[in-house]
Amino acid sequence: MPKPDFKKIGLLTSGGDAPGMNAAIRAIVRTAIHHSIRVVGIKRGFDGLLQGDILDLESEEVSDIVYRGGTILKTARCAEMHTPEGQEKAANICKILNLDALFVIGGNGSIAGGLSLSKLGVNVICLPGTIDLDLDCSEYTIGFDTAVNTGMEAISKLKDTSSSHQRCSIIEVMGRYKGFIALWCGIVGGAEEVVLPEEDATTNQNQVIEQILANRSKGKLHNMIVVAEGVGDAAALAQKIEKATGIATRATILGHLQRGGNPTALDRMWASTMGYEAVELYVQGGRNRVMVVKDGVCANVDIEEGLNFKRPYDEKNYRMMKILAL
Length: 326
Ligand code: F6P
Description:
Elements: E1 8-13, H1 21-34, E2 38-42, H2 45-51, E3 54-57, H3 84-96, E4 101-106, H4 108-118, E5 124-128, H5 144-165, E6 168-173, H6 180-189, E7 193-195, H7 201-217, E8 223-228, H8 234-245, E9 249-253, H9 265-283, E10 289-294, E11 297-302, H10 303-308, H11 315-324
Parallel strand pairs: 1-2, 1-4, 4-5, 5-10, 6-8, 6-9, 7-8
Antiparallel strand pairs: 2-3, 10-11
The chain binds 6-O-phosphono-beta-D-fructofuranose.
The site of 6-O-phosphono-beta-D-fructofuranose has 11 residues, from loops.
């Protein structure tokens, strides 16, 4: 069968950076080169696309990056891509650049940007890159594991000081509107409670206070509570706990530390697999798809269907956390 005439693909990272994005870039570039496809890197996400800020990506450009956090392509949040004019302009630039496809690595907002371009005739292939794990159509998003590991290490360190002072520690972790990072950090860090946006905030906070008092009455000398940023205001919760229990309480907001650091093996593995599979999919004629993990394996779905997919909140892990914290 004659080889189709593949020419050039564009590649950008967009939205919040996530550890593992570089591993995905490397996998896309190397797999494309394997298929004799030219890769154009676009700097600073859709912002850079609108400015025509591009560079050729050869194999050397992606050497020594599999272990590095951040994104060598840089990233940005681009307000203009939320406007029809901006989307039209970006689609035209893809045409002027003669891109046969645009590969987008990013979270919900970036994938929505990709969808808008696909509706204007650009073939878009997306990879889920966000620490938040908040893309319902995928069981995994690149960066999540590293962020959870960072949270877990922070909890261990906080436990040292919190147990020395017999205090209560509140740690606020990222996750935007979802509580995945918080719940996982709570389980793997051995927290007593987690406060999630998926649960009723007031009930949840009252339960936290009851749990702290119950554990103290059993002889526990320090406490560890994880709060998702989607619930917010760890400092206010710390004050509420201190007032209600009389226990000295300190709040720590982990913030952007969770977005940095060398990606874990799991993040590098999924990023490499999704990058490789994304190019293979494109070579086989895939159009307007988002790479996902489904039933534990790499798969892909239509971008619009993927964005509309709603996964019900899985209370199982929350129940497990409660039991393990008893
Ligand atoms: O989506 C990743 C994320 O780190 C969220 O967890 C957080 O809410 C947001 O980005 C922070 O965004 P920014 O870096 O633009 O402040």
